[in-house]
Amino acid sequence: MTPGDKSRVVALDVGTVRIGVAASDPTGCFAQGVTVLRAAGDWMEELSAILDEYNSCTILIGMPRRTNGADGPEAKKMKHVAKLLEARFPHIEVIPWDERFTTTIATQTLLEADVSRRGRKCQVDKVAATVLLQSYLDSMNRGVTASPPPLPVMDQASSRKGGRRGGKRAYE
To answer: Do the Cβ atoms of 133 and 60 come closer than 8 Å?
Structure first.
């Protein structure tokens, strides 16, 4: 995607209960959370309306991978979902993208923003889709076309230091 291109990328963080949806801005620089769809029922009909609204010709789907880069246990299901998306939207490119740690990052972000447990449950999938999409956009803008290397894993002690219960923030 180049500056001035009006087509946007729509990203999906597909879970068994909810599907987080994010979309890029028209320039392909920034990701923004859009909504959370219910995985039960005809979510593809809702997705179709979102694709039309954002004039999207690309769907980015999170692909679960293990920390060593191998496919995770849910990867087979996501490959099946990707095939369903390709069949339903033959004019739209479906790109699998490494989703390692997106939900962890989303949860940590919501915790640091002091979002309630109930609020996190409602928002984490949308934020995870946004993290997934931003990873893709950053890679495309750097000229990288493969999934990025894994993000570092924070241990329990370092993850608590950045929280609201004391300790310095990572940026201090």
So the answer is: yes
Token reading at 76: 């087979």
Helices and strands counted in the chain (H then E):
5, 5
pTM across the whole model: 0.73
DSSP string covering 88-126:
H-TTSEEEEEE-TTHHHHHHHHHHHTT--HHHHHHHHHH
Question: 3-class SS at 65?
Answer: strand
Q: For the chain, what is the mean pLDDT?
A: 78
Q: How many CA atoms lie within 13 A of 87 on its CB side?
A: 6
Task: Give me the residues paired with residue 58 across strands.
Answer: 9, 93
Read off the pLDDT of residues 66-84 as tens digits, 9 standing for 90 and up.
888 788 778 889 999 999 9
Fold of 8-161: Nucleotidyltransferase; domain 5 (3.30.420)
How far from the centroid of its chain's Cα atoms is residue 151's Cα? 14
| Residue type present at position 47 | L
Give residue 57's Cα distance to chain centre: 17
